Amino acid sequence: xxxxxxxxxxxxxxxxxxxxxxxxxxxxxxxxxxxxxxxxxxxxxxxxxxxxxxxxxxxxxxxxxxxxxxxxxxxxxxxxxxxxxxxxxxxxxxxxxxxxxxxxxxxxxxxxxxxxxxxxxxxxxxxxxxxxxxxxxxxxxxxxxxxxxxxxxxxxxxxxxxxxxxxxxxxxxxxxxxxxxxxxxxxxxxxxxxxxxxxxxxxxxxxxxxxxxxxxxxxxxxxxxxxxxxxxxxxxxxxxxxxxxxxxxxxxxxxxxxxxxxxxxxxxxxxxxxxxxxxxxxxxxxxxxxxxxxxxxxxxxxxxxxxxxxxxx
Length: 313
Prior knowledge:
Layout: H1 11-17, H2 32-52, H3 59-77, H4 79-82, H5 85-88, H6 91-115, H7 120-127, H8 129-137, H9 144-160, H10 167-193, H11 198-219, H12 226-251, H13 256-263, H14 266-278, H15 284-301
Helix pairs in contact: 1-10, 2-12, 2-14, 3-6, 3-11, 3-12, 6-10, 6-11, 7-10, 7-14, 8-9, 8-10, 8-15, 9-15, 13-15, 14-15
């Protein structure tokens, strides 16, 4: 999972963040839809690699490695701005960024706990209700009630059919969805207050600091295994750094509503990656449920003019 890749969630953020990180890669000639699809694949492959680590490391330790990797990379990219971040920002600005970081940590912690208990595609589909809910609540169109009903039908099908789903795993996926919804609002608020990638870097540092003690306590000496550290580094790059870069570059050249439609494919991509990398074969009913949620997300974001914005704190 991406730090949060929701319909319209990076629209306001990207405008404030600019294209500094995107210029690290020569991506200007790649069509924006291809960048988004590559980012989705990167996130879900990272999630698959993370789940493969759960036999050796607990989810909290894997989350810690992921967040630590992204925090180090983002802090390096924003190092010049970070030197003056305390001087140039108010206490309220810093509290918003800190809240963003805690939401980021909670979202990743919850979804990794869910991955440990239920199939990847099912977990991401349930989590996707968070950003979908934000898109629907931000809308004033009566027809969006139909999309809400379709998404609800998909969740009911997931809950009632196709194998035994661990209720704790479902609860963690729902919690991740709530955190994802909060992430959308706080990312916009943080982007309004911080220049470049500094706000995201601050948030990543706070989120890492919140999760790392638990990860170290539960992971123990296994976290020092060079092979596991290398895989954890790969998870961080695939799940955070690479998709962030691709998405920001794509958002420079495409409307945010188109971005949202493409990001709606993420639950389906998660199910396919879970099948290919983890051998998680879903039932026909579960696939229909995933398609319902994807279609609801596409419908809710297809004609959205502006991404949801956070109120001033």
